[in-house]
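Note to self: the last two entries modelled the partners one at a time, which told us nothing about the interface. This time every component goes in together.
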Amino acid sequence: MRRTIKRRQHEVPELNMAALPDLIFTVLFFFMIVTHMRDVEHRVSYEVPAGHDVEQVGHRKNVVYIYIGRPLDSKADEFVVQLGNRIATVDEIPAFVKEARSSMSEEDRERMTVCIRADRHTPMSLIHAVKQQLRDVYALNVTYSALEGTNAK
Amino acid sequence: MLLVFFLVTSSMDSDKGLRRQLPPPPEEQQQAVDIRQDDILTVKLDGHGRVWIAGEAVPLEQLQPRIVEFAAVAPKRRVIDLDVSPDATYDSYFHLQEAIMQSYRRLKVAPRISERMEDGKEVHQ
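The predicted structure of the combined assembly is written out below.
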């Protein structure tokens, strides 16, 4: 049996680009809503621990961040504290917290949380010192920042 | 253009963590509270990240049942006494805290933890 194959000349239809701007705007608005600006420059490198039972930190407005990790610009194996945009000592924490607190509104002040973003390998002596400083200025709500899941050991 | 700008400048880091409440700073005259010896569970965290309860090493997975077993008797009265070594890593401390929080969440009460490191003592209510 012989079949004759009919070959037609296919022509690629031209793509309709009219929907493209809509698409781009949708993606743009999505990013504008979900993301926030990076407001600090990291001077320390850190890798937070991973937990299974982590919850959302409070609203950004009332969260104060303290970063603890290895300094980026030195090879030394030491851990430092970063407050705002610069590396600081533990003794500067009370002043930093007070300043952050004074720039908040009344209701945010009560709900203020200090988010400690510390490297997994930080010795507890440093964390303990930070906590003592926070207690002194009555910044008693703390959050130990963590990722969800498990870290590779 | 705007899209690329947002992609570059924004960070998608999610803010998640373990929430804890620190005790207020110690006052001048602090009242000593009498706690019966058998209402205290001393949990020791050493410099190598190992957890010790009553002189025996407890792996992290067994920690939660141990704490639940201890606290379930009288969760409001019983206290966990944390003894943290200054050399312990933050990671091991975090996992210990998490295990305690999970245990107490199962019991639906707030944990009572006292934490110390060398001399400084802090008491969580």
